[in-house]
Amino acid sequence: DQSKVSDAQDPFANEPKRHPALKPSSEKPFNAETPPGMLMSSFYTPNDIFFVRSHLPTPEVNANQYELEISGPGMAEGVLTLSDIKKFPKYTVTSVIQCGGNRRSEMNAVKALKGLNWEAGAIGNATWSGAKLSDVLQASGVSESVVQKSKHIQFEGYDVGADGSPYGASIPLEKGMNPFGDVLLAYEMNGEPIPRDHGFPIRLVVPGVVGARNVKWLNRIILSDRESDSHWQQNDYKGFNPSISWDDVDFSKSPAIQNMPVTSAICTPESNELITPGKLTLKGYAWSGGGNKVIRVDITADGGKTWKEADIIKQEDVTEPHHYGWTLWKVELDVPKDSESVEVWSKAVDSSYNVQPETFENIWNLRGLLSNAYSKKIYHVK
Amino acid sequence: DQSKVSDAQDPFANEPKRHPALKPSSEKPFNAETPPGMLMSSFYTPNDIFFVRSHLPTPEVNANQYELEISGPGMAEGVLTLSDIKKFPKYTVTSVIQCGGNRRSEMNAVKALKGLNWEAGAIGNATWSGAKLSDVLQASGVSESVVQKSKHIQFEGYDVGADGSPYGASIPLEKGMNPFGDVLLAYEMNGEPIPRDHGFPIRLVVPGVVGARNVKWLNRIILSDRESDSHWQQNDYKGFNPSISWDDVDFSKSPAIQNMPVTSAICTPESNELITPGKLTLKGYAWSGGGNKVIRVDITADGGKTWKEADIIKQEDVTEPHHYGWTLWKVELDVPKDSESVEVWSKAVDSSYNVQPETFENIWNLRGLLSNAYSKKIYHVK
Ligand SMILES: [Mo]
Ligand SMILES: [Mo]
Predict the structure, then answer these.
(1) What is the ipTM of this complex?
(2) Residue pLDDT, tens place only, A115-125
(3) How far does B65 lie from chain A, in Å, by closest CA?
(4) HEC string for chain A
(5) Closest Cα in chain A, distance from residue B256 (Å)
(6) Do A295 and B254 touch (CB under 8 A)?
(7) Using one digit for the tens of pLDDT, what is the confidence trace for B227-261?
(8) Which residues surround ligand 1, an ion (CB under 5 A)?
């Protein structure tokens, strides 16, 4: 049977089952977002509808045979099993993970670009539990002299491409070594073992930092004086000036995205819903990277002439710069009887008083990353 | 002599001499900015032309009699002299200090507000040398139990108002206690004893944080579970939604400004200069708070249709989140022969990929703080 033979040769033949509500942006590798309206149902995004962003076929890692290698300049390589990792003190951090390209479709709409056409659902908020990376490194022979010789911590996943090379990323040494950095080797997501699509059995969770550095199916940790030389660290996940095109882009000239800027999105009503005159309730999320907390979400229905502060539905009581969870908000507006449509904008402000930029035109970049301009929706009135 | 009597009763009678180039925005207290063009002459802003922002009459503190009191919940009060402070390891940090209202005049231009009418010169970049606050606190009996009972570090200056109460401010405990926070008890500014206008003999330097928390003439440090109850912490230096007016403002609803958002300003040519067709060189500064580094400054001369990346004139080689100095930049543009005027905009992007907002209208607030929209200048052609 030819189809069975080709299935067996297909690196994507052994993919996990996914929730039917997930909206795929690509099938191989599987990438899919949560419908933005569903994000509003709970503060912690359920595991089975949490957006999936994989760059390579999904590995199936046997927890009993799981090994994590740790190495660095001048140190003996260490190997930890899953039960070794579980012996460290267990920490739980609430953190958003957001794809670097979340909301890309809104940027694409002003000028075509390359990338998965995400709406506002390539983001989710969860609790992550596991060992602190700083505890594990300290116990694994990472001495002061190893640290002195290093500036970055590189990570590799168990997921490999057609050429046999793994997914890779790195973060600055200080974020990983500093106990205040809150970086985890997580084995639980929302209190359950991490699902296969999200990195079973160990996912690196780097709170406040772009999804691409939150390496799934973690296989290897390497302290180094250099960033990861992976495609995703060197030639992707970087921002550029709006006038840089594929003809003149030089990826070596721009820093790898780490902390993500402040964003917000209006999630309900969904874009295609008709509304009625009278009270209109908008709901959405807001978030900022780098451990910043969202301090305010402003809404306008008249192009910025007047702004109304949204009510916070829920936000964790954690202080910046350790506030990694998102903020759910709502606001009630009046839709006059004679209106045909209403255009609403949301803008979030974070604890460093950074604010979203107004337009996608002025932050446009050829990969459609960092797409954090005002969320603008036009609703038609029945 | 009546004038001498009233001088003697004037709390502002004993003010230091100031450099004639400083442009005052108020005389009593003395507040004055550096002409933005002069900021471009050096990476480190010279002490004598560094902007002055004082809220009260300038105290004259005798270095030999200087005392700094340290107290906290459940601890014996400590007192340090200047020579005690100089015995700690000496650190030097390059940091901008920026008034929370820098560039307010540009926000005021779109709608009137209350505050000193600063142009872009209420900012300066300097080296600050002194003891680390975290070292001093640790040596002064601030035990783990004192820390556990505290969330903030309050500061009081030797400057007092008509009612006898001092200038006061506070910062989050973590910023001050964390050795990575880089907070200094500074006794030198650009290698010289701190000038009287800038806090002689000890100024608290909180890198990345609004000027108002960088308490001059430091007299008292108080660990506490509460923020400073001073006017400047509670009822000023906070941001609000553009629709909040003096009739409905509630200062208790907004967090005190700490880290400052990303900003930039075009400094030369000065606003009133006529330019000639041909090459036009713009120079300016860019800066972001919270230890973020400026990674890019984009310039447009066609309302955002095309953006040119500015060249960095100078920036320190320090990694975020410890990059506190500013970035000086320049760019060369072509002014066509037949043009009557040219409108240029600058926007900075920082290492968390936060970007300046486009317009002052959408970030307007009744105190004119956080005035960090694009710097826009129109030059007329001769
Ligand atoms: Mo991503
Ligand atoms: Mo200020």
Answers:
(1) 0.96
(2) 999 999 999 99
(3) 38
(4) CHHHHHHHHCCCCCCCCCCCCCEEEECCCCEEECCHHHHCCCCCCCHHHCCEECCCCCCCCCHHHCEEEEECCCCCCEEEEHHHHHCCCCEEEEEEEECCCCCHHHHHCCCCCCCCCCCCCCEEEEEEEEEEHHHHHHHCCCCHHHHHCCCEEEEEEEEECCCCCEEEEEEEHHHHHCHHHCCEEEEEECCEECCHHHCCCCEEECCCECHHHCCCCEEEEEEECCCCCCHHHHCCCECCCCCCCCCCCCHHHCCECCECCCEEEEEECCCCCEECCEEEEEEEEEECCCCCCEEEEEEECCCCCCCEECEEEECCCCCCCCCCCCEEEEEEEEECCCCCEEEEEEEEEECCCCECCCCCHHHCCCCCCCCCCCEEEEEEEC
(5) 9
(6) yes
(7) 999 999 999 999 999 999 999 999 999 999 999 99
(8) A 53, 99-100, 211-212
